[in-house]
Structure formats: C-alpha cells, structure tokens
Task: inverse folding
C-alpha cells in the first residue's frame, strides 16, 4: 500500500511531541517535513522542541524541520484583541496573563514548559521559511497528493495559501487539530489553536480544501489514562518512556485544572489524535459535515468555530467535517501498537 504523504505543522508543546513521534514511527506515513509555528511557546522554542524530538528518535537524517511564522497574521496588531492588549475577555477578567508580543501565546503554562525535557540538539531547521518550503513542496507534488496535519495555529498554512493559491489543488486533505463545539479551552468560546490566529483559520476554511477538524470535543472524549500511560511505559523503549512521561505530565496538569479529566485520571493528547485520524478516520466516531466560520470580530467570541447546523435549503455550502467524538480505546491501541512495533525493530 502506498504510504500517505504528510506534512505536520506544529507548535511543539507536549502533545505535538507525541504526534511527531507517532508520525515518525508509523510505517504508513511518508513524512515529507515538519513545519513549526509560534503557538504554545515562542517560535524559537517550538522549533527547538521539534528538533529535540526528531533528534531524540534518531531521525535527524530523515526528517526535515522548517521554521515558519513567529506571529499570527493580525491578532497581535488589532488594538481590541486580547492578543494585543494582553487582557483576556470579560469572561476571564481575573485571567490577565499578558501575551508578550513576539512570544508564544502561552496555553496553560503548566502544560507546555519552554523546553521539552529532552537533550539539547545540534540539529538545525533547513535554511528556508516554512511558507516558501510549503509552497515549493506542494507545487512540485501531484494534484491532491499531500495531506496537511496542522496541530497549532494555522498561520503558516494561511500565508502559504495567500502566497500561492495554486497549492490548494495539491492538497489531498487537511486534518487539523483545532476548534471546539461544546468544548473550548483558551476562552469559553474558543480553542487555543484557532484562537491564537483566527484570521488564519478563516482563510484556511475558505480555501475550498477537504478539511477535517479534530476539535476538543473529540480529543477530550479520547483521553488517555494513567493506567494506559503505564502500559506504554512498559514497552520499554526510550520513545515509549518519553511518550508515557509526557502523558503523565499532561494528566497532572489537567487533573489540577479540569473536573472531567480529574474524574477520569486522564488527559487528552490532542495532536496525536489528528495524526491517528489521517490513517484511521473511523477513530472519529461522531462526525458532522457543516459550514463553519471562525469569529474574527474580536469580541468575546473571537476565535470561536461557529458551526452552522441548520439544514437550510439555500444555506452556505458545507466546508468541513467536524468530529464531535472519538474512540478512546482505538486511539490508545493505535499509539501502543506503533510504539510496540518500533520496539521490535
Ligand atoms: O487546544 C489544543 C491545542 O493547543 C493543541 O494543539 C496543543 O498543542 C495546543 O497547541
Ligand atoms: Ca499543538
């Protein structure tokens, strides 16, 4: 069976790191490259973290890392947005975590420290902007042949689309981690990846590409537990050890913060679920097709993924698939098998 050609776009962070390891170890992928973007932490850190993961898995000579945009399109410029004022919306008046301009948007700091707990690396990103590399790589490809898996803010993808719209014809699918319907995170209305660059997300949504959202509704339903993390640790490889300790660290962060996850003794591993869904769409168990827009008005719902679920005869065309649930066991078994198979090599 031909391998799935993929490009990962990451803001590495902890769950991005697990997603990268799955994408590198899974034999069904042809990983053309990993592009990095500002998000969980600042660009220089998301890039360094990505390089550390690639090096730690001994893939430095196989996997390209390409550095992308260090700021969202406009949200840090618009005078009324939390990204520029540093003040969160009224919903979270007491949450005035300022958002430094040229620095990461800082999701829960406890979830993503600056550097991943991995050895420093001498690996470097290739000497080219991720936007240019994306355009060049896609234009060289066959039509509809490359699957993009963005698991951070969509800045790189949006800028590449604006730079050369011809790339949309080269994209087979976009399977992105982002958005939320009944589950949100960064604000009561918005999930972090979309909220960090709402205008970029809207550009991607209007691209006409085949888009599947793997939102918080799905990733939270596919949480991984402490018990499952220990099963991964028992595989005994250094990759399994890192994945297990990363999951346990995320569980600690979520259990402190989130009532649901504390009762499950688990945590969502958002980005890895998006990678799984590329090969196993059946892991997404409740998927709706709808028209989705991102609120870019800059108010309380800034960055919200607004799903039009009305069945209007003359409604806007449906522009995405949006997963509301996922199969937790299938997701875990997929990760466990990849790590076990790589252990047997
Ligand atoms: O909301 C979850 C997303 O925000 C994940 O991609 C996580 O890595 C952060 O980027
Ligand atoms: Ca991410």
Result:
């Amino acid at each position: 069976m031909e391998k799935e050609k993929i490009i990962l776009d990451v803001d590495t962070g902890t769950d991005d790191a697990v997603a990268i390891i799955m994408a590198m170890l899974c034999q069904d992928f042809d990983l053309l490259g990993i592009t990095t973007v500002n998000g969980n932490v600042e660009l220089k850190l998301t890039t360094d973290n990505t390089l550390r993961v690639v090096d730690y898995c001994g893939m430095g000579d196989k996997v390209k890392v390409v550095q992308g945009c260090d700021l969202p399109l406009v949200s840090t410029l618009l005078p009324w947005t939390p990204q520029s004022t540093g003040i969160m919306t009224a919903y979270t008046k007491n949450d005035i975590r300022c958002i430094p301009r040229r620095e990461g948007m800082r999701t829960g700091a406890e979830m993503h420290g600056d550097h991943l707990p991995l050895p420093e690396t001498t690996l470097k990103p290739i000497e080219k902007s991720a936007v240019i590399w994306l355009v060049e790589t896609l234009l060289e490809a066959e039509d509809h042949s490359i699957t993009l898996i963005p698991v951070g803010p969509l800045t790189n993808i949006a800028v590449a689309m604006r730079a050369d719209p011809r790339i949309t014809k080269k994209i087979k699918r976009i399977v992105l981690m982002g958005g939320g319907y009944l589950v949100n995170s960064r604000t009561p209305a918005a999930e972090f990846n979309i909220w960090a660059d709402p205008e970029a997300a809207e550009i991607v949504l209007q691209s006409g590409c085949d888009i599947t959202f793997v939102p918080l509704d799905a990733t939270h339903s596919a949480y991984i537990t402490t018990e499952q993390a220990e099963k991964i640790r028992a595989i005994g490889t250094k990759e399994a050890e890192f994945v297990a300790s990363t999951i346990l660290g995320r569980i600690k962060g979520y259990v402190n913060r989130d009532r649901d996850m504390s009762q499950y003794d688990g945590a969502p591993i958002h980005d890895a679920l998006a990678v799984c869904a590329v090969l196993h769409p059946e892991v997404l168990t409740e998927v709706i097709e709808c028209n989705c827009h991102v609120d870019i008005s800059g108010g309380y719902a800034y960055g919200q993924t607004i799903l039009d679920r009305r069945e209007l005869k003359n409604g806007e065309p449906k522009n995405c698939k949006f997963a509301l649930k996922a199969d937790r066991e299938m997701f875990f078994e997929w990760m466990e098998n990849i790590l076990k198979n790589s252990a047997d090599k």
Observations:
- The first helix runs from residue 14 to 25.
